[in-house]
Amino acid sequence: QLEFVESGGGSVQPGGSLRLSCAASGSIFRIRAMGWHRQAPGNERELVATITTSDDSDSIHYTDSVKGRFTISRGNAKNTVYLQMNSLKPEDTAVYYCYADTDPARSWGQGTQVTVSS
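and the corresponding structure tokens:
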């Protein structure tokens, strides 16, 4: 089981911005990718963004609803990623869960609440 340090969640007005950060540690296996899923009350968990972390050539994917508004990037520290969220909408309100992929398993952080409302 990996340990995750997640931060950056909070409450903002529509159109505002937040930046999430996630650092994973404690893996004896190589982490291949990291990113975020989110889950709103009454909804299934869905992919938000993912990025490879195994080399210097990033492979990035976003769900359609956040394209053009969210940007995922790798940090300078190993196994650290950031999610810059701009032009936030009420529909973005959810618990955001950081994850890390290794060959045998996917591990999840505890999640951080993002609330977008007026």
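(Above: one complete record from the training split.) Residues 101 and 118 are 36 Å apart (CA to CA).
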